[in-house]
Every structure is written in structure tokens, then in C-alpha cells.
């Protein structure tokens, strides 16, 4: 097994876990915070928009089964790459879309994938997703982990009301 990690931010981490968690080769998907300047932030601190962190998911995967490139392609289907000020019904800096890379290979894959997305003309608006080096990842509080499993009705409401409806409407 070739264990690697990927970190993506694309709105509320509650809705970012399920799409990745469903694929063979995924070992774990953890909700957390990254990209900011405050060590060990709490959910309340991140929501205050003063920490610089995004809500993100850290995906541990078996690269012999699923590649980083495949994960980036999944990311484009679950995040709105045209909205720098939030995602779907979630607004604010902590919900901005960011691909956090570890190493030159992940950076190159993410940048090429973003360029391919631009050239595909799948979206009418410019692609604004940032690609940044990974920083310390802080695991979110327990009640945020596996939200879709613990709260299926609320997850379905959040998903149907925001991400799924938006992507269906705005993707070509």
C-alpha cells in the first residue's frame, strides 16, 4: 500500500467528506481546519473569520488504488471553483475553495487540472480556486467527523439545498 494524503477546502466540510469517502482506496476523510495563522483553532474561532483558516478535509488514500489526480477530479465536481467568497449557501473566507498540495508532484497535478478545467469551458465564470502549499492541519471537533453518517437527514438537507442543486444548475 502506498499511503498518501490530500487536503481540499470547498465549503462546509460536512459536505466534502461523503463524495471522497465513497471511493475504493480511501482510507480516511477527516474534517478540520488549515491555511490560517492560529494554532489549534476551534470551530467558533474559524467561524469568526479571524483565523485565516478554511474548513477542509484531509484525505488519506492508497495511491496504488486511487491517484491524487483522480481525487482532484472528484474535487472539481463537489466544489464551486468560480466562487472565491464561499461555497453555495456557506459564505465567508473560511469556505473559500483551495487545493492544498504537499510537494511538487501534487502542485503540478493540481495546476494542470485547474488549467484543463479552465480550457474545458465547463463554467461560465473564471476559475478562482487557489492552489497553495499545505500547512498544519487541525482536526475538527468530534461532532464534525462523519457528519453524513451521524446526521443523515440534516446532511441530505444541506447537500440538496446547496451543493447538489448549485452544481446541477451551473455545470455545463
TrEMBL record:
Oxidoreductase recorded as keyword: yes
SUPFAM superfamilies to which the protein is assigned, alphabetical: Peptide methionine sulfoxide reductase (SSF55068)
GO molecular function: L-methionine:thioredoxin-disulfide S-oxidoreductase activity; peptide-methionine (S)-S-oxide reductase activity
Catalytic residue list: 12
Catalytic activity entry: [thioredoxin]-disulfide + L-methionine + H2O = L-methionine (S)-S-oxide + [thioredoxin]-dithiol; L-methionyl-[protein] + [thioredoxin]-disulfide + H2O = L-methionyl-(S)-S-oxide-[protein] + [thioredoxin]-dithiol
Record Pfam families: PMSR
Superkingdom: Bacteria
Alphabetical list of NCBIfam families matching this protein: msrA (TIGR00401)
Protein name in UniProt: Peptide methionine sulfoxide reductase MsrA
Organism: Companilactobacillus ginsenosidimutans
Gene this protein is translated from: msrA
Amino acid at each position: 500500500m502506498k499511503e498518501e494524503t490530500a487536503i481540499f477546502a470547498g465549503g462546509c466540510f460536512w459536505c466534502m467528506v461523503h463524495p471522497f469517502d465513497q471511493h475504493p482506496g480511501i482510507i480516511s476523510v477527516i474534517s478540520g481546519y488549515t491555511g490560517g495563522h492560529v494554532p489549534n483553532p476551534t470551530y467558533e474561532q474559524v467561524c469568526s473569520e479571524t483565523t485565516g483558516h478554511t474548513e477542509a478535509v484531509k484525505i488519506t488514500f492508497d495511491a496504488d488504488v486511487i491517484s491524487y489526480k483522480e481525487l482532484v477530479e472528484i474535487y472539481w465536481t463537489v466544489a464551486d471553483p468560480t466562487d472565491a467568497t464561499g461555497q453555495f449557501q456557506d459564505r465567508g473566507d473560511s469556505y473559500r475553495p483551495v487545493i492544498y498540495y504537499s510537494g511538487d508532484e501534487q502542485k503540478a497535478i493540481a495546476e494542470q487540472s485547474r488549467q484543463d478545467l479552465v480550457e474545458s469551458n465547463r463554467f461560465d465564470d473564471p476559475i478562482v480556486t487557489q492552489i497553495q502549499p499545505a500547512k498544519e492541519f487541525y482536526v475538527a471537533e468530534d461532532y464534525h467527523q462523519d457528519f453524513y453518517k451521524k446526521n443523515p437527514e440534516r446532511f441530505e438537507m444541506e447537500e440538496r439545498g446547496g451543493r447538489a442543486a448549485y452544481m446541477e444548475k451551473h455545470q455545463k
